[in-house]
Amino acid sequence: MVILAGSTGLRRGELIALRWRDIDFESRQANVTHSVWHNVEGDTKTEASRKPVPIHPLAIEELKQWKLATLYHSDDDYLFPSIVKNGSQPIQPDMILRRHIRPALGRIDVKKKIGWHSFRHGLATMLRQKGVDIKTAQELLRHANSRITQGIYQQSVSEEERLAQGLAFRGLLEGGSTQHPSAPLKTA
Questions:
Q1: Phi, psi of 175 (to 5 degrees)
Q2: Looking at residue 50, what DSSP letter applies?
Q3: Average pLDDT over residues 127-141
């Protein structure tokens, strides 16, 4: 579940609403058609949310293994069913955070409180740091428009800010001009 959350940008309600019929193993994608909120299944948040989501080959392999291991593996079953509810409802995502994710983070001394939206922000940050263009990031995160994506991107530029600050300090200390790698080349 965490691998899918961190690599696909799926929202919590979309992630837990996935059924086996929504996973296209051959095309390596999830077809997001619905969402679950407080155990009520409904439509996705936006039209952009209903677009297929690519799934990395490693995550596809994990899903194949999970499908073989789970008691709930028919097309209509949830990928992440509640055992307590005999698979009739998806697992409670906050329970996963409380019982598994936050304790694991505590064991590696991460103090920041992590929520499901942290995975979307983390993905946006990684995409930004890797130089992925804004339109591709928007589509992967399934934002309705690029302003939403850009707002997240603008919050996640700490490494780029450090690089720019370092260039400015070098320029001040050395008295010369140092060019940022993403700046247009100066032509004579």
A1: 75, 5
A2: G
A3: 84
